[in-house]
Every structure is written in structure tokens, then in C-alpha cells.
Amino acid sequence: MLRNVALSAPYMHNGSLRTLREVVEFYNRGGIKNELLDPLVQPLGLSDTEMDSIVAFLNSLTGSNVDELVADALSQPVGNVTR
Q: Could you tell me the residue ranges of all domains in the chain?
């Protein structure tokens, strides 16, 4: 889940990355060297501007109105109700 991801540091299974920027840089480098890593996993080649944009997007998913959003979503009809 990405909602409020900026509030859940440190990141990774071992807590080794302190910021979202470090996470994006980690994946931009292609992760860690590992002989079992799928050869399709490659460095992303993102520019600093692109990485900044990803971090800004992830930060934009932070909010204090989760209860309001859930209530609004639950109040909406699901599927085709005009049969």
C-alpha cells in the first residue's frame, strides 16, 4: 500500500534505507548484486529530475483524511445500478 508511504520509514525489509529518495536511488541502480536476480532486473537509468518527480508523487500520497476518504468510497454505489 502506498498511502502514507512517506510516513513509514525506514524502508526495505531490513530498514536499511532511511528516505524515499534512497529507495528510488536503490531501484534506479538495479537493486543489489545477486546471482539469483532475474536478468530482466536492470538499472532504470532515471535522471535526478525523474527521481525527484517519483519522490514527489510518493509524498503526495500522504494525508490525514484517510477516514474521510474511506467513508466517501464506501458511500458510492458499486457496479451498474441502473439495470
A: 5-74
Sign of CA dihedral 45, 51, 53, 56: positive
DSSP string computed for 10-76: SBSTT--B-SHHHHHHHHHTTS---TTS-TT-------HHHHHHHHHHHHHT--S-HHHHHHHHHTS
pTM beyond 0.70: the answer is yes
pLDDT greater at residue 22 or residue 73? 22
Side chain identity, residue 56: A
